[in-house]
Design brief:
Length: 546
């Protein structure tokens, strides 16, 4: 076609032949210009749309519009542009005349005419066959113009469609088209215009309409992908496109999801109510429908299996995984039930009981009958280290969930372990001080808050063993920050009453004067205690501020 909008001879028959092979066409548009007022078109101002009995038909729970639903609109006057066949677009006159436009419409009233915004790239039109139950003559008639207006950005999409296809596929469009015909507009030459305002995603809506003309919807969805198919499912549910909804659900149930896609499905199912039989398989993947009792003890079963695991490599792999799942800062924590505190403490008590038995074996206080039943395949040091690692791992989970106050009292009450500590080799007993070190660091860094009696009981019980084991902790740190431990021990001591501080600081002073660097360096905390105990008033304030 040349720069003029007039057709060449024979073009009408060719267009009629091509029209039988397609059931829709579309283009991205700005609000159409009026051929009666070309000055408005040249100045890019929006023409008025004449309304002929607009309806207020809205879509319940539809994602298409938040304020108004689908509606019938009057005839819109538009600029001349023709889609002659799928994939080929005619050029546009730079300055068309009103006479030529009106003459074109009179010569071929069924010609497809749309206005295209030059700032938007031309989409590639695709040809789709009508459903088998619709004859070719019916499918070749474009008697519905669907005008989609974007919610943001002011975009617009116009689709020329067949009313039979829309009515057969969508209950919402069937109702609107039926209402249009009941209002006396049953003439075959008159176009039914439907406007959908505030569409969230024009591309998704267009793809949903395209599925109505697809013979193999699952194949098309597999090309689109999961994330986009969820959007199409939302639009299909809004316009009551039953075949599209069923196809999307069937496809989504058969493929894996990413976490983002799973969360998007959860949000969608919270907004829409689908048939239980249709969504049963997908809901079974989204929600765990088991008894409440089994869910309450699930964390205990997982934790117990890790603490009883004998394979070191598997245990080291599983501990960070489960800790990440149970921590409050975990990205996986959503609306899950809270971890049962009693279950975690029961596992801690079991690990403590195992350590007591191992120290009895190390101190030769266990009977030969009981010793025969113990695990003898691995060295004693390795078994003790494994149980201490388990306790520290559980303690980190308790600290993260702010449940560790009770463990302070539990650890302070291990009088039997404290007695055996003096009789066991230093290369074995220092493992116990690793537990005390983690508690001291948590208290000194203000991550663990407990009563004064609990702090006093812990320090009176385990401060002496810590002084004896500090040298071994320096040589076998196992990830322990010794500087942080020294600072935290001093800060924790300063939280006690001054009388107890005096007793413990003097014990440290005697030990440090004999063993030097084999003991923790608490000189900074000792100075603070000295000033607070023996200096008064403004002198204390002046020194501490310096």
């Amino acid at each position: 076609m040349s720069g003029s909008t007039r057709r060449k001879p024979g073009s009408s028959s060719r267009r009629e032949s091509q029209a039988r092979r397609r059931s829709w066409c579309c283009s991205f548009t700005v609000p159409p210009s009026s051929p009666e007022n070309l000055s408005l078109s040249r100045s890019h101002s929006h023409p008025k749309t004449l309304s002929s009995k607009p309806t207020n038909s809205s879509v319940p729970n539809s994602p298409l519009s938040t304020k108004s639903g689908l509606s019938l609109v009057g005839r819109t006057r538009i600029d001349p542009r023709r889609i002659l066949s799928p994939g080929r677009v005619s050029p546009i006159d730079s300055d068309p005349t009103v006479h030529s436009i009106i003459q074109e419409e009179q010569e071929d009233p069924e010609e497809i005419i749309t206005a295209v915004d030059s700032s938007v790239p031309d989409p590639k039109p695709e040809s789709f066959r009508a459903p088998p139950e619709i004859s070719d003559n019916e499918a070749s008639v474009f008697d519905v113009r669907l005008n989609l207006r974007g919610k943001t950005g002011g975009g617009c999409l116009v689709l020329e469609l067949n009313s039979q296809v829309l009515s057969t596929s969508s209950e919402v469009f069937a109702g609107l088209i039926s209402e249009f015909k009941r209002n006396g507009s049953s003439s075959s030459s008159k176009m039914c215009r439907i406007e959908v305002p505030e569409v969230e995603n024009l591309g998704v809506f267009r793809e949903t309409i395209e599925l109505m003309f697809e013979d193999d919807i699952p194949k098309r969805l597999s090309k689109i992908g999961v994330y986009r198919s969820i959007d199409i499912l939302e639009v299909s549910a809004g316009i009551m496109f039953t075949k599209g909804v069923l196809s999307c659900l069937k496809y989504l149930e058969a493929v894996p999801w990413t976490e983002e896609e799973e969360e998007k499905l959860r949000i969608l199912f919270s907004r829409f109510k689908f048939d239980d039989v249709t969504t049963r398989d997908i809901l079974a993947r989204l929600y765990y429908r088991n008894s409440v009792d089994s869910q309450q003890h699930l964390a205990r079963q997982i934790v117990w299996s890790i603490t009883s695991c004998t394979d070191a490599n598997a245990r080291n792999e599983l501990k960070p995984l489960v800790k990440g799942l149970l921590c409050r800062s975990s990205v996986y924590e959503k609306d899950q039930a809270d971890v049962n505190k009693e279950d975690l403490y029961s596992v801690c008590q079991s690990c403590l009981s195992s350590i007591v038995c191992l120290f009895e074996e190390a101190s030769d206080t266990i009977s030969s009958e009981k010793l025969a039943k113990k695990e003898k395949g691995r060295p004693l040091i390795e078994r003790i280290s494994r149980e201490v690692d388990n306790i520290n791992w559980l303690l980190e989970i308790l600290l993260d969930r702010q449940m560790a106050e009770g463990f302070v009292d539990m650890w302070a009450d291990q009088g039997e372990l404290i007695k055996m500590h003096e009789n066991v080799s230093p290369m074995v007993r220092y493992e116990l001080s690793r537990v005390s070190a983690l508690l001291f660091i948590a208290m000194g860094t203000r991550k663990l808050h407990c009563r004064s009696e609990s702090r006093s009981g812990l320090l009176l019980a385990w401060f002496g063993p810590m002084l004896l084991d500090f040298g071994w902790l320096q040589r076998c740190r196992k990830g322990l920050d010794m500087k942080a431990l020294e600072e935290a021990m001093g800060q924790t001591l300063l939280t006690l009453p001054l009388k107890q501080q005096y007793m413990l600081f003097m014990e440290w002073f005697r030990c440090f004067s004999k063993h030097g660097t084999e003991c923790p360096n608490l000189s900074k905390a000792f100075q603070i205690w000295w000033r607070r105990s023996f200096l008064r008033g403004s002198e204390t304030y002046a020194i501490e501020t310096r």
